[in-house]
């Protein structure tokens, strides 16, 4: 057997107008955990797609266990034991867990050709137990959370006896506990001799599990290092080409009048008696576990879902918000957590997407859009947010994840809102760009906006908010000033422990 | 211009990619020109002023209906009721003008008004009654309107319309049929509407991702109601032209017109998934269908065979589009 499971040499990939990868080489050893780091748009996902046969390289070669291979589609790579788990899961929600695990490789009853559900259920169950989860495999996949669905995908790979599992930002929509389970299972895979390529913008995860780390910048490989030689600062330096001064910059504003007052907001089965005030010049962070009701609260305030009672006041006036349209009319903006499903029109370009909320302001004579004004404003926003590549007519589907997020942000900047709700604003964004987003939030606050940030990353909530509200099962279970709170206190409130009341000075 | 947003956008890059962009945008136009060239060689009569004007006239009704249909398709919907709306609105005009002797102006208003009303109902059923897909609401309207058209006329045609009503469908200005001029004017208006007004842009947005559009503060119910209302109006306008051309309103008019309209949109590059398609593409799609029918007539191909040919062209046109998308996706510069 040869030392490398897989080695790629001099891989190049060009898209019209973009060199996504230039001369990238990478070796993967049997049973190693190899992390891939790089900024948004560095080419990580493209590299993975070449590896699995979604794209074909323009140049370079690929050796699998010493033999030259070339994959035209994912089926060919799968047959050699390579599979990928993407951030957007490829689980079919309407099929059962078992059917998902055996999709395309169903077992049949010998001699009959009918599906052998008994054996499949058994094997599926065993594979999932190996991953430490015990669920009913005959239920449909839609009944389980994202974390479980990811495990179902891994079980699918286990059943097929793969040698390499690639994970592209697998943790970006998982809760803290689910992340722990995933990382534990990755170790388990390694012990079974399965190699893992792991992509994540969360460097602490990378440092926790990787054996080796490769950094890519602007489509070029910067280097591969052993875990022992790596630390967070070094990875960041290699990724962005400079050191970051401040991970969580803070805004310099005094809080002003009350911008948003929520009183006794109720939504059957989801939200119970939510009350809080948000001031001008203030950032409130909403912490809590996934499913605590934070997104539901944001959607309710924004009029995306109906409420069953409660009062919302904006700048002192009671308002009635029945639809997102009303909310925007009253100066609100809402960045959804699911940028592909709810944020972007993927088939349309950056111009269309980034001006959707503010289209009316480009109108002449009330109805006709001034195309020149639109283009000028979009150019300006793209420069400000450093959207890359800076091609206004680029279809947003082709942008890297982080740049897609920036387009969504641009959309709301365009609406000239005064109250911003950011739901997981830095999901899938690289370390450098995160700081950009924080700076941007700070700028909004300095200009007199009021901001709510919902985030599942505790350091982020603690790093950028003035006040932290913790939610649990649809209720606010704790309020803390950022200056005097510990992660333990927040976690306690989030998991139903006793809340520590503390008013902001 | 920001008419549609295809797979790979112009990357402002090399001339080669720009050329490819052009070809992509012009795909159906090249098809139309190619088809015309073939027919020019096949039939000496094809490339005469008379015949070209004939094609222009024949394509008019389908073009008018297709542009309304395009709006529905852009929102990832469909309007199956256009043929029946055409029938009901024209026979009602016949009853008002011919049978009741009211003024042609009232007749035209009744005709267009019924188109607007039925289209609006389609939109209301889709949005306010939350019917799951426009296929259902418009299928219902298709049957109701056809049935009503048969009932109010006792299944017999109405003829002898005044000349003023026939003007749109029958008159010429010089060699050019008025109906074709109407089409050009209507298409220009739609081009501006879809590309340079907010509602027009919202129509593309709704088709691309309704949830993202709603969360961007756009009232998508309103957009959809506007879309189906306009589609109904265009069906009635097509009916007005038809009445002029044949000097008769009959309850079985417009049978199957919905499929010709859909075909024109699809041949012209509109996507059934919504969000993609252009005004001029639709015009070319409609012209391709008319030229094809005309050519096959000139070559004395039987009506039955013509139907077969149209079917094949629809599938070929969309297949070529699929290939073009694939080529663009794996393009190597
Ligand atoms: N099909 C495509 N056509 C054109 N350009 C593309 C295509 N796919 C990717 N790109 C471009 O290639 C570059 C690399 O993108 P890729 O998605 O690999 O980045 P990434 O490292 O995964 O970034 P992120 O961390 O944001 O996910 C980007 O500039 C992107 O816009
Ligand atoms: Mg990526």
TrEMBL record, chain A:
GO CC field: plasma membrane
MF (Gene Ontology): ATP binding; ATP hydrolysis activity
Location(s) in or outside the cell: Cell membrane
Location (main, coarse): membrane
UniProt signal peptide: none
Domain ABC transporter: residue ranges: 6-243, 253-498
InterPro entries: AAA+_ATPase (IPR003593), ABC_carbohydrate_import_ATPase (IPR050107), ABC_transporter-like_ATP-bd (IPR003439), ABC_transporter-like_CS (IPR017871), P-loop_NTPase (IPR027417)
Keywords, comma-separated and alphabetical: ATP-binding, Cell membrane, Membrane, Nucleotide-binding, Repeat, Sugar transport, Translocase, Transport
UniProt cross-references to Gene3D superfamilies, sorted A to Z: P-loop containing nucleotide triphosphate hydrolases (3.40.50.300)
Membrane association type: Peripheral membrane protein
Protein name, as recorded: Monosaccharide ABC transporter ATP-binding protein, CUT2 family
UniProt lineage: Bacteria, Bacillati, Bacillota, Negativicutes, Selenomonadales
From TrEMBL, chain B:
Subcellular location: Cell membrane
Keywords: Cell inner membrane, Cell membrane, Membrane, Transmembrane, Transmembrane helix, Transport
Pfam families cross-referenced by the UniProt entry: BPD_transp_2
Membrane topology reported for the UniProt record: Multi-pass membrane protein
The protein's name: Monosaccharide ABC transporter membrane protein, CUT2 family
Membrane-crossing residue ranges in chain numbering: 26-47, 67-98, 105-123, 167-190, 223-243, 255-275, 295-320
InterPro entries per the UniProt record, alphabetical: ABC_transp_permease
PANTHER family, sorted: ABC TRANSPORTER PERMEASE PROTEIN YPHD-RELATED, ABC TRANSPORTER PERMEASE PROTEIN YPHD-RELATED-RELATED
GO MF annotation: an example: transmembrane transporter activity
Record's GO cellular component terms: plasma membrane
Keyword Transmembrane helix carried by entry: yes
CDD domains: TM_PBP1_transp_AraH_like (cd06579)
């Amino acid at each position: 057997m040869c030392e490398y499971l897989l080695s790629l040499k001099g891989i190049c990939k060009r898209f019209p107008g973009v060199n996504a990868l230039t001369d990238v080489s990478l070796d993967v050893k049997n049973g190693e955990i190899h992390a891939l780091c790089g900024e948004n748009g560095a080419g990580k996902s493209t590299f993975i797609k070449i590896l699995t046969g979604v794209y074909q390289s323009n140049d370079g070669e690929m050796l699998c266990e010493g033999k030259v291979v070339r994959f035209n589609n994912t089926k060919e790579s799968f047959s050699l034991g390579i599979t990928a788990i993407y951030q957007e899961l490829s689980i079919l929600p309407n099929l059962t867990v078992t059917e998902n695990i055996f999709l395309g490789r169903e077992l049949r009853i010998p001699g009959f050709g009918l599906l052998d559900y008994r054996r499949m259920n058994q094997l599926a169950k065993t594979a999932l137990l190996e991953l430490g989860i015990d669920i009913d495999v005959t239920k449909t996949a839609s009944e389980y959370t994202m974390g479980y669905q990811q495990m179902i995908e891994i079980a699918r790979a286990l059943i097929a006896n793969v040698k390499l599992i690639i994970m592209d930002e697998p943790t970006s929509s998982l809760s803290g506990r689910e992340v722990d389970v995933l990382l534990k299972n990755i170790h388990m895979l390694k012990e079974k001799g399965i190699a893992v390529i792991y992509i994540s913008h969360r460097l602490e995860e990378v440092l926790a599990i990787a054996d080796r780390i490769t950094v890519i910048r602007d489509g070029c490989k910067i280097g591969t290092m052993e875990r022992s030689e790596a630390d967070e600062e070094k990875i960041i330096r290699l990724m962005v080409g400079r050191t970051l001064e401040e991970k969580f910059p803070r805004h310099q504003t005094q809080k002003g009048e009350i911008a948003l007052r929520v009183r006794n907001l109720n939504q059957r089965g989801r939200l119970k008696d939510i009350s809080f005030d948000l001031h001008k010049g203030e950032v409130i962070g909403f912490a809590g576990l996934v499913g605590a009701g934070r997104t539901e609260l944001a959607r309710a305030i924004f009029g995306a879902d109906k409420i069953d009672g409660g009062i919302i006041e904006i700048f002192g006036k009671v308002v009635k918000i029945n639809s997102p349209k009303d909310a925007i009319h009253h100066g609100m903006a809402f960045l959804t957590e699911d940028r592909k499903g709810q944020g972007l029109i993927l088939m349309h370009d950056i111009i269309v997407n980034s001006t959707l909320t503010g289209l009316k302001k480009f109108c002449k004579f009330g109805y006709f859009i001034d195309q020149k004004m639109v283009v000028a404003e979009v150019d300006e926003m793209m420069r400000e947010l450093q959207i890359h590549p800076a091609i206004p007519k680029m279809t947003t589907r082709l942008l890297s994840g982080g740049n897609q997020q920036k387009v969504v942000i641009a959309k709301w900047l365009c609406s000239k809102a005064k109250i911003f709700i950011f739901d997981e604003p830095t999901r899938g964004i690289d370390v450098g760009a995160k700081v950009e987003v924080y700076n941007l939030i700070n700028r909004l606050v300095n200009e007199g906006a009021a901001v709510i940030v919902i985030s599942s990353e505790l350091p982020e909530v603690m790093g950028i908010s003035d006040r932290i509200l913790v939610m649990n099962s649809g209720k606010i279970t704790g309020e803390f000033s950022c200056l005097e709170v510990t992660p333990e206190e927040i976690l306690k409130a989030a998991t139903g422990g006793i809340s520590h009341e503390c008013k902001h000075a | 211009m920001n008419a549609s947003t295809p797979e790979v956008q112009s990357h402002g890059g090399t001339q080669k990619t720009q050329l490819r962009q052009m070809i992509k945008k012009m795909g159906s136009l090249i098809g139309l020109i190619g088809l015309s060239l073939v027919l020019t060689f096949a039939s000496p009569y094809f490339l005469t002023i008379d015949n070209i004007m004939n094609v222009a006239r024949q394509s008019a009704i389908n073009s008018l209906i297709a542009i309304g249909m395009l709006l529905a398709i852009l929102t990832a919907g469909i309007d199956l009721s256009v043929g029946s709306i055409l029938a009901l609105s024209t026979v009602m005009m016949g009853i008002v003008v011919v049978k009741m002797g009211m003024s042609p102006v009232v007749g035209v208003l009744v005709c267009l008004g019924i188109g607007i009303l039925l289209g609006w109902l389609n939109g209301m059923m889709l949005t306010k009654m939350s019917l799951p897909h426009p296929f259902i609401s418009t299928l219902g309207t298709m049957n109701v309107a056809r049935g009503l058209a048969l009932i109010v006329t006792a299944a017999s045609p109405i003829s002898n319309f005044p000349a003023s009503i026939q003007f749109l469908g029958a008159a010429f200005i010089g060699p050019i049929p008025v109906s074709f001029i109407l089409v050009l004017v209507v298409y220009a208006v739609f081009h501006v509407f879809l590309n340079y007004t907010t509602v027009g842009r919202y129509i593309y947005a709704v088709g691309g991702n309704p949830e993202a559009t709603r969360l961007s503060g756009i009232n998508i119910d309103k957009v959809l109601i506007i879309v189906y209302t306009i589609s109904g109006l265009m069906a009635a306008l097509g009916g007005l032209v038809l009445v002029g051309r044949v000097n008769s309103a009959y309850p079985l008019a417009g049978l199957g017109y919905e499929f010709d309209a859909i075909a024109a949109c699809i041949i012209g590059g509109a996507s059934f998934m919504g969000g993609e398609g252009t005004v001029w593409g639709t015009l070319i799609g409609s012209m391709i269908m008319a030229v094809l029918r005309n050519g096959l007539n000139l070559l004395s191909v039987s009506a039955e065979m013509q139907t077969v040919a149209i079917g094949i062209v629809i599938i070929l046109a969309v297949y070529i589009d699929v290939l073009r998308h694939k080529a663009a996706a794996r393009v190597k510069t």
